[in-house]
Amino acid sequence: MAAGAEGVRGLLALLVLGVLAAGGQGTTGFIKSPLSQKRLTQDSVELYCEAIGNPIPEIQWWFEGNEPNETYAQLWDGARQDRVKINATYNLHSTSTIYIANLTGDDSGTYECRASNDPDRNHLSKSPKVKWIRSQANVFVIERPDIQTELRSAAGKLVLSCNLTETFSLIEGHEWKHGDKILQTDSESSTSTTYEIEGKEEEHSGSYQCIYKTSPEIKGEINISVVPQVVAYKKSEHGNEGDTGVLTCKNPSFPPVSTWSWYRNGKESIVNGSGRYIIKSSGNKTELRILKLNIEEDTGDYLCSATNSFGKGEATVNLRVRSRLAALWPFLGIVAEVLVLVTIIFIYEKRRKPDEVLDDDDGGSAPLKSNATNHKDKNVRQRNAN
Ligand SMILES: *[C@@H]1O[C@H](CO)[C@@H](O)[C@H](O)[C@H]1NC(C)=O
Ligand SMILES: *[C@@H]1O[C@H](CO)[C@@H](O)[C@H](O)[C@H]1NC(C)=O
Ligand SMILES: *[C@@H]1O[C@H](CO)[C@@H](O)[C@H](O)[C@H]1NC(C)=O
Ligand SMILES: *[C@@H]1O[C@H](CO)[C@@H](O)[C@H](O)[C@H]1NC(C)=O
Ligand SMILES: *[C@@H]1O[C@H](CO)[C@@H](O)[C@H](O)[C@H]1NC(C)=O
Ligand SMILES: *[C@@H]1O[C@H](CO)[C@@H](O)[C@H](O)[C@H]1NC(C)=O
Ligand SMILES: *[C@@H]1O[C@H](CO)[C@@H](O)[C@H](O)[C@H]1NC(C)=O
User: Fold this and answer.
1) C-alpha to C-alpha distance for 276 and 239, rounded to whole angstroms
2) What DSSP assignment string belongs to 262-294?
3) Does the keyword section mention Iron (predicted)?
4) Ligand 6 atom 5: the closest Cα is on which residue?
5) DSSP string, 186-203
6) What is the reported pTM?
7) Is the pLDDT assigned to residue 252 strictly greater than 80?
């Protein structure tokens, strides 16, 4: 249907362009007209209008309420206690968007987009040769119905329920959402709907929505709020003397953290920028950086603490600082092992040497020499076997 509407609009635009090309100056046409809409109180609505002409036409918005005695009155940017915003552009075509925030029942009525490029269009006494062209849309503002929400926790389960307590338009189904994720959907017409989660509040904190498939759509919100469930990225961190130590804590729970703080050995508060400390906190994550790690001063327990509107949560990170040499220990160990082996082999070979020298002295011919090498190889093999 939308594609059809676009097609019709495109055709309209072509027709208008054709008319303009033929008629020349003074003609105006709409290439996009505002569309009628249904909204709930406190919602907002946006109407769009686009016109074409030479010279570029001016666009105005007019409103007529549903009271029988009401007549059209012009709307301007900032009208209705600043709830009305009009954004117009005059660049090749004229476009205008009227945006009305926080709707009330009194905003229901007919909204008219008027366009004209007649030089005398706003003259009070002269009647313009070319009148304003008009395009209308209706906005229906419906009282937002009340949805009662409830969160129960029983037998290791969380039960979220929504109850629409007033009669509203036809209900074609329900949907439960957590953020953008659809959790459950049905096509029942009941006024109440429930969603169950296995587990505890701490594991499933967040903002959940029950959506009734009505026209317009209505929604209820249930927040599962808990104190911050802080977790350390790593419970124990290792750093080398002189390097920068990085300790990280996160909070995946709802509501988000408002303030993060770090403590040394359970109580000494760490001030950002003081000494060798730098704290970086962003939303649900905090990072404590300790520059030029020192074995005596920095080894110990660090506490990250998070506060949200429900309370406080914390986690401990243990930091161990190794000496620069410590990092070399495994390597030095291997070197020492190799040295010992080489020494043993060397001594062993030294001990064997006298026999071999004797052998050599006996013959001194090439085949014997090769014999000796074979002998040596055998020794090595035997040693390996041992
Ligand atoms: C229309 O009539 C109602 C009462 O019926 C009155 O409150 C309102 O002010 C009138 N509006 C105008 C524009 O005269
Ligand atoms: C007004 O409309 C222009 C063009 O559509 C857009 O770039 C701009 O962000 C709008 N301004 C406001 C305040 O909505
Ligand atoms: C919306 O309007 C109602 C009264 O009509 C008012 O109480 C409320 O504060 C307004 N909300 C906003 C966000 O302006
Ligand atoms: C929904 O609310 C109505 C009116 O308060 C009540 O009579 C009904 O029992 C509720 N339904 C559920 C499923 O809680
Ligand atoms: C749920 O939490 C959000 C974000 O903190 C808040 O804007 C909203 O008012 C809360 N809703 C309810 C029903 O408490
Ligand atoms: C908070 O953490 C969640 C995942 O744990 C992530 O998806 C989300 O983007 C984070 N929010 C902010 C504001 O950093
Ligand atoms: C700590 O200070 C650094 C720079 O001195 C700054 O970039 C950072 O945002 C600060 N952190 C907090 C949590 O204020």
Assistant:
1) 15
2) EEETTTEEPPTTSTTEEEEEETTEEEEEESS--
3) no
4) 252
5) E----SEEEEEEES-GGG
6) 0.69
7) yes
